[in-house]
Design goal:
Length: about 260
């Protein structure tokens, strides 16, 4: 049994969504959008990885500030912060791997180290790394910065699988899909830590989105569908907005029915 080292703040309200199938579907859509959106600004618009990272990190800081100041869960605000972490993660990873020429292996190693240190600091200072009931400001900050670096790591992992492993975009996507399906089975049929499984799945949905985004945008000769980063981003954004609206409309209807 974990002990909570930090007392719950009396006026703090958990502002995170429930972890459901709809959550994972929207997470995958948002991370894929992060891949195509990041590539659109950095590559298609030729802004470059450094300036794109600065732009998206500024967006992350602004949206995170609004999320921290909010008094309750706002669906569109929450998913905007997720998109900001995903786009910033895409360009941060590409800047490290390509502009700084660290390569995918060194870049991923650095990001794994940062992520493990964040989780360890979170566990040590808060008492747990649970994501279903965050009720302190410190835990909320750890949650968002862990997500930022998990998305950055996911981009590096996806690029490694797509470019260096020999699997290609489609093969990498199939591999990650298989691993995620295995995690789902483990979740339902074993007693393995749900928190650990959550973070493994959360990290892997990022390379899933990265490889799927590459599959959508890369030219045919590279194994992609050649839809382009701009059109793919708009399509994914539309899908995410519709999914958020449907999911939260159903939730509100159930809540009203329960009160009636």
């Amino acid at each position: 049994m974990s002990t909570t080292l930090e007392r719950t703040e009396p006026d703090f309200i958990n502002k995170l969504p429930h972890i459901t199938a709809a959550f994972w579907m929207m997470k995958i859509t948002a991370t894929t959008l992060g891949e195509t959106g990041g590539d659109w600004l950095a590559q298609t618009m030729k802004v470059g990885y450094l300036y794109s990272t600065l732009i998206f990190f500024a967006l992350f800081v602004i949206t995170l500030g609004a999320q921290l100041l909010s008094k309750k869960h706002h669906s569109y605000l929450y998913w905007t912060v997720i998109i900001a972490t995903s786009t910033a993660g895409t360009t941060m990873s590409d800047y490290m791997d390509r502009t700084l020429e660290l390569g995918y292996t060194k870049g991923a190693s650095i990001l794994v180290t940062i992520l493990l240190l964040l989780l360890a600091a979170w566990r040590f200072t808060v008492g747990n790394v649970k994501v279903n009931d965050i009720r302190t400001r410190k835990a909320e900050l750890f949650y968002w910065f862990t997500i930022l670096f998990s998305n950055t790591l996911g981009t590096a992992t996806g690029d490694f699988l797509s470019d260096d492993s020999g699997l290609g975009f489609f093969g990498s996507w199939v591999l990650i899909t298989g691993i995620l399906a295995l995690i789902l089975v483990i979740n339902y049929f074993t007693r393995m830590s749900k928190v650990l499984l959550f973070w493994i799945a959360f990290i892997l949905t990022r390379p899933f989105g990265a490889t799927f985004g590459d599959l959508l945008t890369k030219p045919h000769e590279k194994g992609g569908l050649d839809l382009g980063t701009g059109y793919s981003s708009l399509i994914l954004l539309a899908i995410l907005i519709v999914a958020i609206q449907i999911s939260y409309t159903k939730k509100n209807k159930k809540h009203k029915s329960a009160l009636a």
